[in-house]
Amino acid sequence: MMLEVTNLAKSYGDVPAIADLTFGVAAQEFVCIVGPSGCGKTTLLKCLSGLLEPSRGTAVLDGTTVDGPPETLALVFQEYSRSLLPWKTVLDNVLLPLRAKGLDKAEQRRLAMESLAEVGLADFTHAYPWQLSGGMQQRVAIARALAYQPKVLLMDEPFASVDAQTRAELEDLILKVRRHFGITVVLVTHDIDEAVYLADRVVVLTKRPTKVAEVIDIDLPDDRDQVTTRESPEFAHLRGQVARLIVGAQPGDADTTNVGVAS
Question: What span, in angstroms and rounded, lies between the C-alpha atoms of 224 and 207?
């Protein structure tokens, strides 16, 4: 396994957020994590990235216990506008983490330009983030993560702040770059449809104190399409399977009519 999570728990004082999580992610696998709102998905991602120390249990990345931000891991946040430096150009924003890797300037630029080309922004290197649309800003954030050449890419609801059409384009983009770069992806999302569309497996979490409700294999073709894949009976069945687990994890009576983009 590229990433192994074993009995991971996190409490804030006397308040348990994550009770006991155990699951694994294979090399080059795409795993989506879903669950009820407030169940600790972002807390889990922070523990996996070394930004937060678990109260108990471990996260092991490529054979090494995570006890700080690993050099082989990159993280893409939902708030792309806050993760980009507005006074730096697109190219300089992508170059920023590469300067800590000890690469010469020519290699840094090559990696940055290759990543920007991969996300369709090769012609915007001298633009500033504030001159770009939200979708383009998130492409910059993705390019910056890819240029770092991580083995594992963690994504915290990376498409939640863009419109539906841009979201679909970014979903297809991350599938493309995942195949091209051969990286492992762990993505947190509230959107059940998005999880089923993107993932090889979906990890469904319970409400707090959080445990793994079930891990669902997504048996869909690797070559996915926003229309054909989402219209297939297999997609509908898997979507319903995930939705039922999340509805069952909600406190009180749940309205199932709008389960698709869970808030």
Answer: 30
* Planar angle of CA 75, 213, 219, nearest 5 degrees: 75
State the angle between helix axes of 105-118 and 164-181 in degrees (0 to 180), rounded to the nearest 10.
130
Q: CA–CA separation, 222 vs 234, rounded Å?
A: 13
Q: Is the dihedral of CA 96, 101, 106, 112 positive or negative?
A: negative
**Cα–Cα distance for residue pair 202/41, rounded to 1 Å:** 13
Q: What is the pTM of this model?
A: 0.89
Alpha carbons 232 and 127: distance in angstroms, whole number: 41
- Give the whole-angstrom CA distance, residue 249 versus residue 208: 9
206 backbone dihedrals φ, ψ, rounded to 5°: -85, 175
pLDDT tens digit sequence for 160-205: 888 899 899 999 999 999 998 999 999 999 999 999 999 999 999 9
Contacts of 31 (CB under 8 A, 6+ apart): 25, 185, 186, 187, 199, 200, 201, 202, 203
Amino acid at 7: N
Separation between Cα atoms, residue 68 and residue 5, nearest integer Å = 15
Q: Which domains does the chain have, with CATH numbers?
A: 1-72+151-263 (3.40.50.300), 76-149 (no CATH)
Question: 36 is written with which tokens?
Answer: 């009820």
